[in-house]
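Title: [Solved] HTH domain-containing protein 3D structure

Original question kept below for reference.
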Amino acid sequence: MKNRYIKILEHLAQSDNEFVSGSELANLFNVTTRTIRNDIREINANYLDKVIIAGNTQKGYKLVGDLSTIHQNEDDYEERAFNIIKTLLSETDFITYDELAKKLYFSTQTIRKDVQKLFQIIQAEKRNIEVEAIIFQGIRLKGSEVEKRLLLKKLVTTNCLKRMSLDEGLQYYFGDWFSQSSIQLVYSCIEEEVTKYNLLLSSQELFSICVNIIISIKRAGLNQKIAEKDMRLDNTSFEELKIAKLILIRLAKEMNVQFNEYEYQYLCYLLITLQILPKNNEVIEHEHSDEIEEKVKSVIKKVWTRYGFSSRKNEKLFNGLLVHITKSLYPLKYYFPVENPFISQIKSEYLNAYNIAVVLAKELQFCLNIKIPENEIGYLTLHIMNIIENSQETRKRIAIIYGKNPLVGKLLERKINLYFPNIKIDGLFANHETHLLPEGIETIVTTSEIFEEQHLNVKNCIRVSEMITNEDMKTISIQLNRGLLKYYLSPNDLYFLDEENQKDLLKALTKFGDIQHMYTSINEREKMSSTNIGNLVAMPHPFDCGNNKKLRVLVAINKQKILWGDKMAQIIFLFIPPKNQKVNNTNFFEEIHDVFKQTNMTEKLLNVTNYDEFLEVWSSK
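Solution (posted by the thread starter after getting help):
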């Protein structure tokens, strides 16, 4: 429970069953009457059982019932963990379990369990901090000042912004550290300084910056500043460092607190992880970076070669990716959390680019001995997506095949040009001229039956009537985005399984598909970032290539939902990259995303019983 909530209850309990005005409570806690109203609403909803704070518009508030029945949710670990760490960071020495329990209104036994759980989490994450416990003295946080602050920030979420304003959210978390006016001052200073740079930040980004700076002000006020033992002082001239200095120098005067160069750099790295600056005209500006830059360049070129990208054709985009990686390495080496509110959307909409980004991240981790989190992989994906789009003809190439009447072909061409500006028509051919099709054509639209269709090297064949109706145009629209799966998925690679977990399903699928040797590589890829794309669909794949000449897809429809990453899955698309990784399969992944944009597609596919039904549902409107 928040410290202010406890004090409000204590004050009302001592008022001898008399009403206390909202303005009196607001003045007592140095907040607005609106904040008091929100606090009391939250206390009544989440903490009181057989007692309630009664409100009267004329008189104010009073406590009705026995305060001993106050409800504390023993399962609400995250809130307690935040308050435990915040309390430890409010102290400069040891604090006993009994003192912690008294401050947080929980039993000593509950607090001991929470601290033990926190200790295990810190150990598992290999953080450079520890919970130090000494008998008869108590506990304290020991270790890197940077990681102490980052641990507390990790326990603050932006979910509160769904029900309260930004300054109310800050007051909710840190109202016992600073007055409402001080918090509003911090918020105003930050907003004014970033406005000078014409930065359009979301409320979540502003909230994150405010939270980090409030923690820094508190720690600096306790003379617990970041020092050489916590962080190397890198000689950088990033634009984010200039913004950090402007904000902290101003707040130092306003809040009567001192900041050093390490504090400026700490905020700079936080701003880098938030990606607040536009990417135009960025250059690498730091000291002694040649060795790191060369390593990053070699990794990028290695991945470029693997996927057939041209460094010369994409030189500007290549440099943009190089700058992004080199810059991001600074906060990543200190385990600064990367915030990416679009990660789910990126993973589902840019599947091919995301998979390449995972490969790039794996190579960077191995080469630089640094961990690259999923959110950062998301930012790498955006760079790679630009490169993919720049490396290929953006319009889809198709050929038109007609029967005996070339006028039918001309009419079809005119309608396609009208309806689909993203399509490039590479020629009209009679059905006896299919041998003249240009190389690289993936799709044909035909008004007649093609007897040797299986011999054509095309992925998609769309049949329409010679009347070329609006219904035909709808068919073309659907098939352009739904026809590739048939090209990649053979009838023998669709399986109906009933496995209980992810491990067993992958073992069964790789066994049936005769690719058991790829099981380990598939698991390694899954550890980097879950391949669950939502809507009960997962798309696992190995880091390694197969012996297949084209992309191979195996589909498993499982009888029961199983946990895949942090979400459930029931339809599994296991795809095996071709031996020639230079083949671009972006269109296929776009098809997957397009199909599962239909909210009921998963339900339909779960009811199919064979390959033909699967493709029929897949291609349905």
